[in-house]
Design goal:
6 helices, mainly alpha, Retrotransposon gag domain-containing protein, Retrotrans_gag_dom, about 0% strand
Length: about 130
């Protein structure tokens, strides 16, 4: 097994495929409209550890657990030659930057537009 610090996107995607062990634990699937970035990544890491995946396997299987716009983003990310030497930590950071920012902006907008109605108690408003 390679040192995880030296695993890049390019060499992980070109690694020979091996079947998953019988104790396979499927990570949850991330969809930006219904999932939280931090909890998805935490669950993905936990499932990867349970399955005995090193960083190469985390990279190889990652797109299988991304849905909709997240999967499209990853396909573009993985297809960009500028990202071919990125390791798992860099991929996670780029993913957080892309999708955590979206969720943060949506939450900011929701909070900015939240108003207490005349008949709403403070407890109900909060």
């Amino acid at each position: 097994m390679q040192n995880n610090q030296n695993i890049t996107l390019a060499n992980a995607l070109n690694r020979p495929r091996e079947p998953a062990s019988p104790r396979f634990m499927a990570p949850t699937t991330f969809n930006p409209s219904s999932s939280q970035v931090v909890s998805f990544l935490s669950h993905y890491e936990a499932a990867a550890n349970c399955n005995g995946w090193d960083d190469a396997y985390k990279i190889m299987y990652y797109r299988n657990f991304l849905d909709g716009p997240a999967n499209e983003w990853y396909q573009q990310y993985a297809g960009d030659i500028a990202n071919s030497n990125n390791n798992w930590q860099a991929i996670k950071a780029a993913f957080r930057k892309e999708f955590l920012g979206r969720q943060y902006r949506a939450l900011q907008l929701r909070l900015a537009n939240k108003r207490q109605t005349a008949t709403e108690t403070l407890r109900k408003y909060c």
